[in-house]
Amino acid sequence: MLMLKIIVRPQKVDQVMEELLLAGFPSISKMDILGRGKQKGIQVGDIHYDQISKKMLMMVINEDDKEEVVDIVKRTARTGEKGSFGDGKIFVLPVLEAYTISTGKKEL
């Protein structure tokens, strides 16, 4: 199993979630986050914005589904044809175990 932490622009999050749902990946947690990437924030006139509003999606998937999910997110979250700084990141982490609390079963 793998956990994906997906950081996207707020205006793209609903579209990403809808595409994942349509592809059969309904289980997602969504959080509001603040941060900055390689661009170190943005400059608007005289004001430097050090932290930018983003959305983070977290999901646990089977390893066999990784390429499909990553491709969906990259295609859906990208702005413009070639993308732009600040479009986001996808982090892939191993998950050793998962338990369903209501049943106590070891399962995804």
Automatic annotation (TrEMBL):
Regions annotated as coiled coil: none
SUPFAM superfamilies xref list: GlnB-like (SSF54913)
Transcription regulation in keyword set: yes
Annotated GO biological process: regulation of nitrogen utilization
Gene Ontology molecular function terms on file: ATP binding; enzyme regulator activity
Entries under PROSITE patterns matching the protein: PII_GLNB_DOM (PS51343)
Annotated Gene Ontology cellular component terms: cytosol
Superkingdom of the organism of origin: Bacteria
Cross-referenced InterPro entries: N-reg_PII, N-reg_PII-like_a/b, N-reg_PII/ATP_PRibTrfase_C
Alphabetic keyword roster: Nitrogen fixation, Transcription, Transcription regulation
Pfam families the record matches: P-II
Gene3D superfamilies: 3.30.70.120
Function: Could be involved in the regulation of nitrogen fixation.
Descriptive protein name: P-II family nitrogen regulator
Organism of origin: Paenibacillus rhizophilus
